[in-house]
Amino acid sequence: MNTVVEVENITKTYNTTCAVDNINLSVIKGEIFGLVGPDGSGKTTLIRMIASLIKQNSGKIKVLGFDNVKDYKSIRKVIGYMPGKFSLYQDLTVEENLTLFATIYDSDIRTNYHLIEDIYSHLEPFKDRQAGKLSGGMKQKLALSCSLIHKPELLLLDEPTTGVDPVSRRDLWKMLKKLINFGITTIVSTPYMDEAALCDRIALFQNGRILESNSPNEIIGKYENLLYKVKSYNNYLTLQALRRFSNDSLVYPFGESLHLVLEKNDSGIDLIQEYIKKQNIGLVSFELIQPTIEDAFILLMQTKNSEIL
Amino acid sequence: MRNLFIILKKEFTQIFRDKVMSRMIIMMPIVQLLLLAHAATFDIKNISLLIVDNDNSTFSSEFIAKFNGNNYFITHWNYGNQKLAESKLMEGSIDLYIEIPNGFEKNLLTSQESGVHVTVNAIDGAKAGLAMFYSNSVVNELINSFSRNKGYININQKFINIEYSHWFNPELNYTTFMVPGILVLLVSMIGLFLSSMNIVREKEIGTLEQLNVTPIKKSELLLGKLLPFWFIALFELGFGLILAKVFFDIPMEGSLWLLFAISAIYLTVILGIGLFISTITSTQQQAMLFTWFFSVIFILLSGLFTAIENMPYWAQVLTEFNPVKYYMQSTRMIMLKGSAYDDISVFIYKLTAFSIVINSLAILLYRKR
């Protein structure tokens, strides 16, 4: 096993708020590691520390064997970083931006063109257009191209798909998957659960802490509770009815239906169905289903919160 | 070194692509020089004068004629209506009125003593002083020649006649005095505003962070971002000097190289201040406010409009710390007086010291953040 990033007991506070609270994780060469969690859960702060842009208050980060505080210069030679906010030169053209970032690393567009071919080919017709005049998705593709053009060993992407259309999102992820073939390790942060499932391993973030860190399948595999998909004509009334039945039961809207979580050994589903029937809210169906990452995350959050309480 | 060129190339591409910026670089010297050199003048002409003649004699007509022929004054007169003169002064349509008393000529002939009454609107103190001074000299001249003609010896008559000769600007041409000052203003404003805005702009749009994760060194980045404005400001100086020569025929008595050499040093001070402002601010708006704050103080305490010698002592002490003052003096001395290196070397030392201090401070602060 070849560790690319090693994060040990990292804590970072801004004034009195603790953005990252004693985090440990390690990223292995060639994998896509996802930092998954809601806004403000510490993902960006962690990425910026790995990128050597900010210093931690305590703990240690090693990137390819380099210390993020002492050897930041060495780190900057081998990483590609794409911040969440578009930060290329809006008044330079697509090609000028790409050339600028290639030449900074003593390279040129041709040398590593194969890395960015899939996404840059969409941009090439607009290569003389100023970056500021591109659409949101195009901007992200250009930013990703710029952070890849020098063939970094570690790619850090901070919410690369926020505000990007679904088609561009798919293109972007296809490309990230391809990068594994070139031995490039990727750390990507995202608030989207469907993207979490695309990562090799993920860390679920909440309030600066990691709730769980594992491969998506294993996280789902650990899910021992019973999960029901509840379909009805009026989700709101059903939700209220379910909560009336039991204050403790975990039930939440999920897409067009509701998800109801019961304890592993709970056989109360019949009682619930009977109760709901009496509520006069029309036909309500219950179906036992396999959980998704999002269900796992919601359950993890719930248990963590009740632990705190 | 290679990285420096990459940044320089990027900066120049951006500057020349920005149409507003590149137009401003050309238009600023033209407009500032042509407009300000003419408008910012202390010469007072067209003083509106009303003479109230209560005497109505030969001499009083001569008196009026003398003022009428003087091109500093626009002269009107009436006979004996002092009330009208006063109301006109009140409403501001005249700057001063002179009242010739009844028996003016007679008194001069008999007692060889007489006087006129001058009332000046002193809302604009400088203008009032000059109007007073001009009218005084006209009156004195008149009375002297009158006495001489009549064979009297006048007590006012000057036995020693002082003749003035104005060195370095023989015709006391105000434009000649102002144009070097405006050039200084131009170079300072371009250098200070462009440099203070530029780095903070990258900070604001996030590109600075993108550059920070690359192997580019901070020194290369800063140099690459400041050098273009050093070149542009020097270009402005050259362009401005050509305009000054063509349109105003401003002399260039001293060495052009010396002027450029001291400008090059001075600009490192200005760019250092720009970098300093960039470092302590995080948005362009803040940087703009700071830059205005600095530049207004620097310019008003530079001796561009008002002589430093006339300032109160504490203000004079303050000007010691004003780099614009030293550059202003050097530029005027080189251009108008033909001063050589030895004459301005003390200014060069001071500017070099300023440059070292402000740049070290700015770089220290920049590193910290």
* Total strands of chain A: 14
The major beta sheet of chain B can be summarized as:
4 strands, mixed
Let me know the average pLDDT of chain B.
Answer: 85
Q: How many DSSP helices of chain A?
A: 11
Structural class of chain A: alpha/beta
Distance between the termini of chain B: 24 Å
Percentage of residues in DSSP E strands of chain B: 5-15%
Mean pLDDT of chain A: 88
What is the overall number of helices of chain B?
14
Structural class of chain B: alpha/beta
For the sheet with most strands of chain A, the description reads:
6 strands, mixed
Radius of gyration of chain B over all CA atoms, rounded = 28 Å
Strand adjacency order, main sheet of chain B: 2-1-3-4
Number of domains of chain B: 2
Low-confidence stretches of chain B: none
Instruction: Please state the CA-atom Rg of chain A, rounded to the nearest Å.
Output: 23 Å
Shape of chain B: elongated
Question: Low-confidence spans of chain A: pLDDT under 50, at least 5 residues?
Answer: none
Oligomer: heterodimer
Describe the structure.
With 309 residues, chain A is α/β, with parallel strands linked by helices. In chain A, 36% of the residues lie in helices and 28% in strands. In chain A, a hairpin with a 2-residue loop joins strand 12 and strand 13 (257-262). The longest helix of chain A is centred in the last third of the chain and has 16 residues, at 293-308. The mean pLDDT of chain A is 88. Chain B folds into two domains: 47-150, abc type-2 transporter like fold (3-Layer(aba) Sandwich); 175-365, no CATH class. In chain B, strand 1 (47-53), helix 3 (58-68) and strand 2 form a beta-alpha-beta unit. Chain B has a four-stranded mixed beta sheet, with helices on both faces. Chain B contains 14 helices and four strands. Chain B has helices at residues 2-17, 19-39, 58-68, 82-91, 104-110, 125-150, 174-205, 207-212, 218-248, 256-280, 284-300, 313-319, 323-337, 341-368, and strands at residues 47-53, 73-79, 96-100, 117-120. The mean pLDDT of chain B is 85. In chain B, helix 13 (323-337) runs antiparallel to helix 14 (341-368). The chains are: A alpha/beta (309), B alpha/beta (369). Chain A binds chain B through residues 51-53, 73, 76-77, 79, 81, 83, 85-92, 96, 100-101, 103-106, and chain B through 2-3, 6, 10, 13-14, 17-18, 205-207, 209-216.
